Amino acid sequence: MKKQTAAIHTAFRTKDAYNSLSMPVYHTAAYEFDDAATMSDAFCGRSDMPDYSRVMNPTVTFFENKVRSLTGASDVVALSSGMAAISNSLLAVSSAGKNIVSSKHLFGNTYSLITGTLKRFGVEPRLCDLTDPAQVEQAIDDNTCCIFFEIITNPQMEVADIRALSAVARRHGIPLMADTTLIPFTQFSAGELGVDIEIVSSTKYLSGGATSIGGLVIDYGNFPEFSKRIRNEMLFNLGAYMTPHVAYMQTIGLETLDARYRIQSENALALARKLKSLDGVMSVNYIGLEDNRFHALARSQFGHTAGAMVTIDLADKEACFDFINRLRLIRRATNLFDNKTLAIHPASTIFGPFTDSQRESMDIKDTTIRLSIGLEDPDDIFDDIRQALTPEQ
Ligand SMILES: *Cc1c(COP(=O)(O)O)cnc(C)c1O
């Protein structure tokens, strides 16, 4: 089956009693067993019967199986948020005395997780320039437990060479973990590029119109104990498994993911091309533009689409605030890849709690507006941006 077909037709593991066409939502905490031996088999991992919904639930398993058949992964675990997927994965590979090699350009909470929370437990952050594989290799030593990076950094839009990072990780026998939230897995195969553990915030493109919070850990099977540890230790002890209702909504979202994404990424490209010409726009950052410094690399890794996040730089912070305040159609909100177009000023919001020098080291600029392009007609989005750039007469 091709990916789009698998997204729609992956079958349930067991036939529903009523021949339901969609996977029923098993809103249930526990499961009953016919006898003691079957019960013991379920609890000890000798069968795949669910026993308790903190660690397994039929509706969540179905969602996981759909993602597995689409990505060709060996195992997929669905968690309660993108951050749960990231934190559980990093906790599964790290321990006091180990270090994580990562980038200084990270999603805000991932940055605080690595440089704050995990550091408090004795895991050392080693943040480097991931566009320089030699620097990454130098940062690695015997205590490095993984390389963690984002395929396109947000909002800087920096693209790392995944094949080169994978070669470094392989030489040192450590897992390459990639947060691939910015390009859906229907469009490219992280596993084929050499990613060992793929992590997705399914809150974004996948959920289908910002319906719910979720995260996925997609394990390509190169580190055989990894997903076992996520299931048998992390889900049990940390309790951040996805809930059945979210799995239901995200299963429906998955079915239309690629169709929505194709329109949103087309809209983003069309707008990025036109925005350059507007008065007040100093620069447009979108890897789909031919003159972007990451364009060729992005194309070779992700194919012909470049995502639905575009950033523009205006004259200064005041111009950014005025722009945000004048928007009529575009919504002032965080989040990415809602059906609606969203705008945010990252420096004063997502990165607001950081100090000036932290923001500077992360290349977060006061002049940047981040746009997440939605499913509206692109002419209407463009008109709103144009009027928002124009001061009232
Ligand atoms: C949103 C996001 C996350 C966090 O996901 P949540 O579902 O909000 O916890 C992690 N990484 C990236 C790149 C994101 O955009």
List the helices and strands and how they pair.
Elements: H1 3-9, H2 36-43, H3 58-71, E1 75-79, H4 82-93, E2 99-103, H5 108-120, E3 124-128, H6 133-139, E4 144-150, H7 162-172, E5 176-179, H8 190-193, E6 197-201, E7 215-219, H9 226-238, H10 244-275, E8 283-285, H11 295-302, E9 309-313, H12 317-326, E10 331-332, E11 342-344, H13 356-361, E12 368-372, H14 378-388
Parallel strand pairs: 2-3, 2-4, 4-5, 5-6, 10-11
Antiparallel strand pairs: 1-7, 6-7, 8-9, 9-12, 11-12
The protein binds pyridoxal-5'-phosphate (PLP).
Give an overview of the whole structure.
The chain is of the alpha/beta class and about 400 residues long. The protein has two domains: about 5-250, Aspartate Aminotransferase, domain 2, CATH 3.40.640.10; about 260-390, Aspartate Aminotransferase, domain 1 (Alpha-Beta Complex). It has helices at about 5-10, 35-45, 60-70, 80-95, 110-120, 135-140, 160-170, 190-195, 225-240, 245-275, 295-300, 315-325, 355-360, 380-390; strands spanning about 75-80, 100-105, 125-130, 145-150, 175-180, 195-200, 215-220, 285, 310-315, 330, 340-345, 370. Strands 1-7-6-5-4-2-3 form a seven-stranded mixed beta sheet, sandwiched between helices. Strands 8-9-12-11-10 form a five-stranded mixed beta sheet. It is globular and about 75 Å long. It starts with a helix and ends in a 5-residue tail after the last helix. The model has no long low-confidence stretch (mean pLDDT about 95). Bound molecules: pyridoxal-5'-phosphate. Pyridoxal-5'-phosphate binds near residues 107, 215 and 336.
